[in-house]
Amino acid sequence: MTLEKSFIALDAMGGDHAPEPIVAGALDAVRLDARCVALFGRREALEPLLKGVDYPKDRLTITHCPDLVAMNAKPAQAMRQSESSMARTFRAVKDGQAIAGVSAGNSGATMALALRHLGRIRGVTRPAICLTLPGLGGPRLLLDAGANARCSAEMLVEFALMARCFSSAVHGVETPRIALLCNGEEEGKGTELTQATFELLNSTNLNFVGYCEGSDIFSEAFDVIVTDGFTGNVALKTIEGTGRFILGQLKAEIKGSLMARVGALFARGAFGALKDTMDPSQYGGAPLLGLNAPAIIAHGSSDALAIRSACRVAAQCASQDLSVQIEGAISALTA
Amino acid sequence: MTLEKSFIALDAMGGDHAPEPIVAGALDAVRLDARCVALFGRREALEPLLKGVDYPKDRLTITHCPDLVAMNAKPAQAMRQSESSMARTFRAVKDGQAIAGVSAGNSGATMALALRHLGRIRGVTRPAICLTLPGLGGPRLLLDAGANARCSAEMLVEFALMARCFSSAVHGVETPRIALLCNGEEEGKGTELTQATFELLNSTNLNFVGYCEGSDIFSEAFDVIVTDGFTGNVALKTIEGTGRFILGQLKAEIKGSLMARVGALFARGAFGALKDTMDPSQYGGAPLLGLNAPAIIAHGSSDALAIRSACRVAAQCASQDLSVQIEGAISALTA
């Protein structure tokens, strides 16, 4: 599959600050990464953002969709809006006009519409949100980050398998080390779900390395951390909240002291580098793994870099035929 | 109850660096806070640490116990060591020689031995570990932090009730705002457990304010965050791991740049203040709520300040008759 001629469908109206950062990210993807991007959204909102901008017209298109999904809409409501920019984004993938879909809109609606239009891969019980986190030694994946509050052990094994495929295809990790999030490292810890999953993972040919505690999410020892969508969502948001609290406290302390303010000026390079490390923008949103084509859920607060990165991840998933790989791995598992 | 004449039983041999920081903390509690502390441990290890030190002999005693619980011992093994310093610590409380017990040893063993010797409060299904965290607007409680991987909705309501009593008694919060940890704020989010607990909490007279996401653990809006011991343990350790990762990254960035190193020197007051905010030592360990007398599980890495704080929390729980308060609250609930 040659990406040069394949479009990424992008919901230009989804996101807390859409459409400006979405269009800016699309322009970067087109001009800096030579991608083809199909924007879906209100023509009258999008065209002014491209006026006077120099870009290859055949690589960045606008498809007018008057309707949009509100950031606080219920998924059921979004499902009824068949002509929204989000619905059109994923329908374009289904219809073969694009190789992957990206939205920074309402994530519940994105999941519902991506699932409806792209469909589950044969053998996959439920798709999962696969988050990329920074960490010692490189990025790591945490899934399910919130698609399924209730999971079975079989589902967690499927998540592990799908993340293995993604880790290899996008992060280039040959044999990802897979861990199961738990309340302790020793065997016998955990719930019925983690214990059953532990047994099942051990019976597969996955590189399962055992339990991982919350304190070790950032350690060098793991490439993929598997959990149910309830625990994964709590962990992910706890990371966000802890980071915000620590940096907020540090900022307040520095602001309160002249000496520290002078010091922070000198150290701002270090703060900047830390911000980059913690910045989810570079990882480009979370794929909803388990669908027949790539669907990327970008953060609602996505800036241009996040959108550009999401287009990169979408293109990588498509060029590596990730869905086909996942289908093969799942069918080998059940065989 | 006058605390001046009441001893806190302290396992002098429990902790990663015991007995030095334990004895140092006991000395501070005795000399700075006028407490009475009964140390349990090996006389030959403890006496040299007190040699030549000026302290009121009638307020700091040593009870010789030759045996000790290994930091990596299984609870079942610890239960068979009836003469260990840890077992003797909690037996002293049971026998009325002390008003509360504190150990920084093996936390599984501490739970098991505290439960055996102090017994559950009537009406309490299972005791819970109640962690105090820093946050905007003051400390907040997170429980269960790991005692019970499997919980029922009824247990979570008991945890909320016990934490309300502790929050009032120790942190002086008159009507603690109680939240339930979940993967979203909207009703309908969560698992069967959170949904059933949501209903039950709403039917009590507790000041239940709804769901709390992981990102809001540090927010000003909550005094008590209730969850099962699996999720609570993952959240607590994720906070630890995230803090360690962020500060480690910042340190590495600063080390790598001369400019930043100079800056950090000026800003060290700010870093110090942040470290104090995040330092669990000042909160003095986590009480195991639901027993007939106060039992405090101090962190294995406790320093003298952490032990001194644990003695303070133990004394506060005892002086406020926390166990009696909890028993009353539970019986009012079930009535």
Question: Can you walk me through this structure?
Answer:
Chain A has 335 residues and is an alpha/beta fold. Chain A has 2 domains: 1-124 and 290-320, Isopropylmalate Dehydrogenase; 129-281, Isopropylmalate Dehydrogenase (3-Layer(aba) Sandwich). Chain A is built from 12 helices and 11 strands. An 11-stranded mixed sheet of chain A has the order 3-2-1-4-11-10-5-6-9-7-8, with helices on both faces. In chain A, β2 (36-41), α2 and β3 (60-64) form a beta-alpha-beta unit. Chain A is globular. At the A-B interface, α8, α9 and α10 of A face α8, α9 and α10 of B.
Secondary structure blueprint with pairings:
The structure is a homodimer of 335-residue chains.
Chain A: E1 7-11, H1 20-33, E2 36-41, H2 43-50, E3 60-64, H3 75-80, H4 85-94, E4 100-103, H5 107-118, E5 128-133, E6 140-143, H6 153-171, E7 178-181, H7 192-202, E8 208-212, E9 224-226, H8 229-255, H9 258-266, H10 268-278, E10 286-289, E11 295-297, H11 304-319, H12 322-334
Parallel strand pairs in A: 1-2, 1-4, 2-3, 4-11, 6-9, 7-8, 7-9
Antiparallel strand pairs in A: 5-6, 5-10, 10-11
